[in-house]
């Protein structure tokens, strides 16, 4: 049996690929975060007749052909188009040569809530009109959730690669990034393209609408007058590699992944659980070797529903005697479902690199029941060393990711990791 | 990519001894067209009689005339009426499969529920649930007059999440999708999760439902020449360190040496990619292909030849071919293959020290395998 012991590698983020309603590409996304841009507009991707209100955060200027070179975009559903475009962007942003990447062993992990449910909506529309015999084979073929990750492999022509789609709903981005981190940390792969993707669809909009959780106009996380979510879309893919690898190629390091924590409420199909989320935050801190006082800001799940925000704020106050600023980028991006925590991770990485905290926009009055500083409406300049990114999903799937600034050989956490495994740099 | 290397550091949340040591399969079960439970599955494989039968065209109007159904299965019949009114078929199959597995694990398994993970592969979830929900929106008096209790069925983590809720499993809870390779990918993910220290032991498996809607999508998506009858069901197993399995009175059935995946970009490269994948896996595990005595392939064209090419000349392993017996179980297919290898292990095959392989070639350009040792 092969059971050699390996020194854990440190894991860094060196490339960002983002497709969002407030900007595509790291530079545009950064500018959107800094200026508190809003992606809200009326939904056009399906017929919204009959709904009293139907705002969302769609991407109306996305041309897949601009980003995707090796696949006919018509062979991809909209979510896969986003994930493939974001993956290619992340590789380019990392300054990684494609030939070099093809020589490496790679993990591609893409989280999602709905896969290609936008295509499933389309197929059902066709089925109602003309019967199931008449469904478009191409659309049927591209509607499988596995394609969100395997299409990245196809576009980048990777061969020594594991492609996995992680449909753990609205926490899926953090799950995917976490798995990429574990794989690099253990030396199983030499690079990971990890994140999440989703496209706006009738099915999910309708479900949230029926639950009374779609906001009529804008998303107002942690505000007294918050009225719910706006469904959004996009993709965030991080290029991750070991610190050794990044240093050897002189790559720009956005942030170091310090660790993450997962747990499951095992309690309710849709309602979050405060104590369980608090426990997940504590697991993440322990895994990352940080203490509550180390966290410079929290990127909250912050959906803007009554239930989420008060439960999440309660969990944060349970762990943090004096909570740091706690923001929700969903105020700008809407709720991009499986992409949400991946895009929030990209935002956290940029905050660390650029020294600012993104704002929570559309904010008038903080709900005293939440009792947090949401950095209202305007970005704040700050020395950001360690950030916590929360994600929650239906069925009580929690995932909390901790990112830190790379400052040289020693990790930035105060508690420190176990003594072994620090010598990588 | 899941060789049994361990990390020097205790790893994240290194509160348990689970983050070191090799992983073993110490329990398994299945809910399949052979019936409910591991015994039914083992017996079905032994008889080698196909469980694929004629579909009732009234209940299942659609393009297929035959399928491998879990006979008589329904959420209420399997789990009782309470809590199953709106539970869809794939969720019920998952909850039942995990329940069968837990029964075989013994009651002490969930003494620390937050340290037990659950990793479940389910493809696109239930396309029937998803598309029915959209249909109700498109055909109702108002587009939002849908049944809110059925909304969670349309979110792809439903089966894994509901299994955790039903059985009280509070560790990491992850849903995996990857076409026919879903079961192998779930296994690889689960081993990585464990190695990362995120749980002490992990329940892992895959589930798929037969539905009219899935049948239509599969029919349209498949090449005309490749439309085998569909199958359904669930398979699940427990992964834990060998010493802990023995301490808990669970005799290891097999050791997980590694999982490995590769990709191909032209149809003719699928076989060579799998050959390379199996060779790589054996090399990574530090074992000889000559010790491979059992192979459970998916059933893709050229797959068996590709596997043999990775083994020494003259290799003559036993083949367990699940697809002809159970139908094409899509997301559950490689899960069923793993269960078949575990069933054989329970029957003492192959001999101690010898190897088994589970392999697959997906139509979307990926291949994968797992290497197990007795």
Automatic annotation (TrEMBL), chain A:
PROSITE patterns: KS3_2. CDD domains: KAS_I_II. Keywords: Transferase. The keyword Transferase applies. Residues 8-405 form the Ketosynthase family 3 (KS3) domain. The keyword Nucleotide-binding does not apply. Pfam families: ketoacyl-synt, Ketoacyl-synt_C. It comes from the Bacteria. Signal peptide: none annotated. Belongs to the thiolase-like superfamily. Beta-ketoacyl-ACP synthases family. PANTHER family: 3-OXOACYL-[ACYL-CARRIER-PROTEIN] SYNTHASE, MITOCHONDRIAL, POLYKETIDE SYNTHASE-RELATED. This is Beta-ketoacyl-[acyl-carrier-protein] synthase family protein.
């Amino acid at each position: 049996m092969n059971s050699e012991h390996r020194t854990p590698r440190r894991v860094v983020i060196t490339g960002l690929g983002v497709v969002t309603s407030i900007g595509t590409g790291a530079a545009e996304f950064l500018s959107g975060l800094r200026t508190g841009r809003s992606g809200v507009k009326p939904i056009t991707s399906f017929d919204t007749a009959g709904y009293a209100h139907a705002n969302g955060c769609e991407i109306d200027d996305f041309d897949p052909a601009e980003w995707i070179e090796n696949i006919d975009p018509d062979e991809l559903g909209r979510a896969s188009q986003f994930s493939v475009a974001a993956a290619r962007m992340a590789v380019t942003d990392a300054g990684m040569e494609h030939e070099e990447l093809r020589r490496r062993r790679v993990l591609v992990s893409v989280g999602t809530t709905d896969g290609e449910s936008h295509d499933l909506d389309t197929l059902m529309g066709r089925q109602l009109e003309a019967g199931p015999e008449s469904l478009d084979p191409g659309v049927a073929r591209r509607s499988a959730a596995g394609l969100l990750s395997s299409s990245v492999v196809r576009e980048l022509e990777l061969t020594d690669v594991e492609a996995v789609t992680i449909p753990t709903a609205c926490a899926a981005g953090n799950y995917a990034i976490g798995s990429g981190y574990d794989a690099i940390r253990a030396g199983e792969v030499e690079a990971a393209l990890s994140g999440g993707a989703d496209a706006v669809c009738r099915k999910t909009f309708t479900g949230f609408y029926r639950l009374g959780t779609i906001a009529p106009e804008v998303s107002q996380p942690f505000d007294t007058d918050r009225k719910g979510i706006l469904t959004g879309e996009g993709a965030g893919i991080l290029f991750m590699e070991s610190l050794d690898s990044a240093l050897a190629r002189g790559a720009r390091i956005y942030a170091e992944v310090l660790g993450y924590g997962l747990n499951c409420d095992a309690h309710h199909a849709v309602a979050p659980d405060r104590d369980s989320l608090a426990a997940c935050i504590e697991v993440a801190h322990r895994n990352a070797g940080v203490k509550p006082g180390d966290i410079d800001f929290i990127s909250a799940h912050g959906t803007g529903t009554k239930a989420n925000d008060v439960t999440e704020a309660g969990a944060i106050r349970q762990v943090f005697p004096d909570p740091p600023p706690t923001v929700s980028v969903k105020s700008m991006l809407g709720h991009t479902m499986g992409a949400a925590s991946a895009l929030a991770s990209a935002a956290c990485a940029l905050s660390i690199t650029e020294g600012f905290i993104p704002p929570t926009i559309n904010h008038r009055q903080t709900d005293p029941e939440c009792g947090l500083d949401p950095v209202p409406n305007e970005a704040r300049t700050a020395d950001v060393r360690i950030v916590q990114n929360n994600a929650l999903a239906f069925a009580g799937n929690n995932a909390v990711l901790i990112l830190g600034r790379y400052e040289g050989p020693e990790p930035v956490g105060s508690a420190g990791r176990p003594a072994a495994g620090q010598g990588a740099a | 990519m899941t060789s049994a290397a361990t990390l020097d550091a205790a790893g994240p949340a290194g509160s348990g001894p689970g983050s070191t040591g090799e992983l073993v399969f110490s329990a398994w079960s299945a809910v399949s067209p052979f019936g409910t439970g591991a015994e039914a599955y083992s017996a079905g494989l032994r008889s080698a009689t196909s469980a694929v039968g004629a579909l009732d065209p009234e209940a299942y109007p659609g393009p297929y005339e035959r399928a491998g159904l879990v006979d008589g299965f329904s959420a209420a019949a399997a789990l009782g009426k309470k809590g199953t009114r709106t539970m869809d078929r794939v969720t019920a199959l998952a909850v039942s499969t995990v329940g069968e597995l837990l029964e075989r694990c013994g009651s002490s398994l969930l003494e620390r529920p937050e340290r037990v993970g659950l990793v479940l592969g389910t493809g696109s979830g239930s396309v029937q649930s998803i598309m029915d929900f959209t249909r109700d929106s498109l055909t109702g008096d108002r587009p939002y007059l849908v049944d809110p209790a059925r909304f969670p069925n349309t979110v792809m983590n439903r089966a894994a999440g509901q299994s955790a809720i039903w059985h009280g499993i509070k560790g990491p809870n992850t849903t995996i999708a990857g076409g026919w390779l879903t079961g192998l990918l779930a296994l690889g993910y689960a081993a990585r999760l464990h190695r990362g220290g995120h749980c002490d032991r992990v329940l892992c498996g895959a589930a798929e439902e037969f539905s009219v809607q899935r049948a239509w999508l599969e029919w349209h998506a498949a090449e005309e020449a490749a439309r085998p009858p569909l199958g359904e069901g669930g398979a699940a197993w427990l992964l834990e360190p060998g010493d802990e399995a023995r301490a808990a009175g669970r005799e290891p059935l097999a050791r997980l040496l590694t999982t490995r995946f590769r990709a191909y970009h032209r149809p003719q490269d699928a076989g060579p990619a799998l050959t390379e994948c199996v060779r790589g896996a054996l090399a990574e595990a530090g074992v000889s292909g000559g010790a491979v005595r059992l192979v459970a392939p998916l059933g893709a064209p050229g797959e068996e030849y590709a596997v043999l090419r990775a083994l020494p000349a003259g290799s003559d392993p036993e083949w367990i071919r699940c697809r002809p017996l159970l139908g094409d179980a899509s997301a559950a297919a490689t899960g069923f293959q793993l269960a078949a290898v575990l069933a054989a292990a329970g029957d003492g095959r192959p001999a101690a020290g010898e190897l088994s392989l589970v392999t697959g070639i997906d139509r979307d350009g990926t291949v994968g395998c797992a290497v197990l040792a007795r």
